[in-house]
Amino acid sequence: MTKLPKEDLDFEGSKTRMEVAYGAGDGDEDAKAIVAKSEAHVGTLFEQSYRPWDGELGPRWTRNYAIFRHHVYGLFRGTGHRHYHPMVRLSIFVILLYSLLPVLMLFLASLSSDGFLNDTFSRLWGINRYNLWGQVLGYFPRNLCCWPMLTALVVGGMISDDRRFGTSAIYFSRPVTRTDYTVMKYISVAVVLGFVIVLSYFVYYTSAIVFNGEGWAYLVDTLPMFLGGLIAGILVVITYTSIGLALSSISQSRFFAAIAFLAVIYGTKLLALLVDSQFDTSILYVLSPYDSLAHIGQWLLGIDPNYDHPLAFSIVSMLLYNAASVALLTFRVGSLEVTRE
Amino acid sequence: MDPATGIEPVITSRNLRKMYGPHLALDDINLDSPPGAIGILGPNGAGKSTLFKCLLGLITTTSGEGTVLGYDIRTEGEKIRSRIGYMPEYDALDPGLSGVDQVRYSGELLGMNPAHATRRAHEVLQYVGLKEQRYRKIETYSTGMKQAAKLACALVHDPDVLICDEPTNGLDQRARDFMLQTLKNTVTEGNRTVLMSSHVMDDVQAVCDRIVMIHKGKIVVQRRIDDLASQVEREIEISVWGGASRMQEELESRGLVVRRMGRVLRVIRVDESTTSEIINAAVSAQVQVRQMQEYDPDLEDIFLLIMDKLGAEVKRTSDLMTEAHTGGDETA
């Protein structure tokens, strides 16, 4: 270490030579540093005081509506409600747009004065039994890919998250019954699925009337078909919600619930398809929830079925899937604990 | 109403019994709990959680009856849960929500309208010391913050009774002190009743003035802590150097009852002569007595004494704790 010469450190009237040299005449030599004094008292971080609340608690429907709002608003708002991953929200938005694609095609067709183009567009996307059935159940990419994907994304953590994070205690230690909890979760999922599946179907049908300038006679002619398709769409929503929520209730993993749902839909479909192609029998399609619904949908819309087995088999299959799923869901929700599991 | 004090009990039960199949979880529970802070004590599996579930009206009792705030636990569970705040033992928070959203949602689930629930969420988060962290996601919270957030969820509707299941689980000393202080404030300043279960006797003693001790589904003690402490035999605590075992043998040979904890011996005080007996024993055993004082029994001693009398093999209350209680710290 370099040592300063002794004389440089010598003080002259409380000043070093260095200070005398640099501070001469500018007043710096009299400068004083003001140091915070130790008697500045250590403040209280915050004052803890209990504040009572004398508001009134709302009735049962307000509690139930809170559950519904929490799960549905989360899709539209980034914060404040159930958190959906941005990719999940984006995927659902893309599926919604895709389900509305025929509306765009109908619009383009209505703009065209070319007879051939107009005919082609109307045949492919115009209102008829096949296209209405196709909108909710028939066309591969949308109905065998988008709807199951949509359901898997929505139901993924719907109940499994409560099991995983212990948030079931938040519900059941409050005046929320297990029935309310199950019903509101069910309605939340069904509304989201319905918003995409049923609403897009409704928009498709009404936009065709608007774009083509159809009148009351057309409406009366096609309304039964529309209602048939609407019922088919509602059945899709109910069945997928039941199966999806049942699978969500048996695990603690979002991924399991989602992938298990896709496995049920695709696995049964694939198995039945393989058996059909090898042995030329459609009976195994009763195992497939999608095919049971498609079969019922064909009947509701009055088009020739693709299946050899009786319609009753498909109806029973759909009812059994729903009943078994709801029973499993109810049982599993019944086992959710408030204290430690 | 208690005829002696004139105070209406908050929780009552008569011959309450709960069976899970052949297993008897609660047996003849007779409770009369006045307002205030009550510690629920007992080894693991004693029936504390089952009792809480019964009081919340979540499970049907096999027989007997009970009331909470005047509501029947068998038929008015929803009304009870509207006026009770329950802080569960384990994490019961959505990690994807911010603190304020979680507490607001807890309020909405009770029937509070969103505006009231939001305003109240800010108030209670400030009360539990999470004012600065309220907009952070719960997944970023420490264990202490999560415990505080759970407490805020339980307090959001200003409940008459607050039930806390192991509120200091996994907390460090500072967070634990704050949690206990908050619970105490809720009782003294908020004038609320707190039911608190814990294996940490110091925590219960810090907050509660009464205890209910459960063992194998039965209530074995239901008293004020002060009353219990006055009933425990007085001891003299001595700290010895150079032959604690010899000293113990010497004391026992003189007919004194001794508890030994390393170099510290506690001798039951028989009468005035016990002190001189101890000094004489030290002379005979040739050990140094470095400290000698009257020992005031704490809740830990009372608990162990009662457990010992019941034949439960509990050497210390830390034996009752799992990793969840200590936050993985075995020395806690």
Please, could you describe this protein's structure?
- The complex is a heterodimer of chains A (341) and B (332).
- With 341 residues, chain A is mainly alpha-helical.
- Helix content of chain A is 67%, strand content 1%.
- Chain A has one domain.
- A two-stranded antiparallel ribbon of chain A has the order 1-2.
- The radius of gyration of chain A is 34 Å and the shape is globular.
- Chain B contains twelve helices and 14 strands.
- Chain B has helices at 48-55, 77-83, 99-108, 114-127, 143-155, 173-188, 201-207, 225-231, 244-253, 274-285, 299-309, 323-326, and strands spanning 11-20, 23-33, 37-41, 63-68, 71-72, 84-87, 161-165, 193-197, 210-215, 218-224, 235-241, 258-261, 264-268, 288-295.
- The interface between A and B is large, with 41 and 52 residues.
Main pleated sheet of chain A: 2 strands, antiparallel
The CATH C-level name of the largest domain in chain B is: Alpha Beta
Number of strands of chain B: 14
**Biggest interface, and residues per chain?**
A-B, 41 and 52 residues
Question: How would you sum up this structure in a few lines?
Answer:
The complex is a heterodimer of chains A (341) and B (332). Chain A has helices at residues 6-9, 17-22, 60-73, 86-99, 101-111, 115-125, 129-138, 140-155, 160-165, 168-172, 178-212, 216-249, 254-279, 289-301, 311-334, and strands at residues 11-12, 15-16.
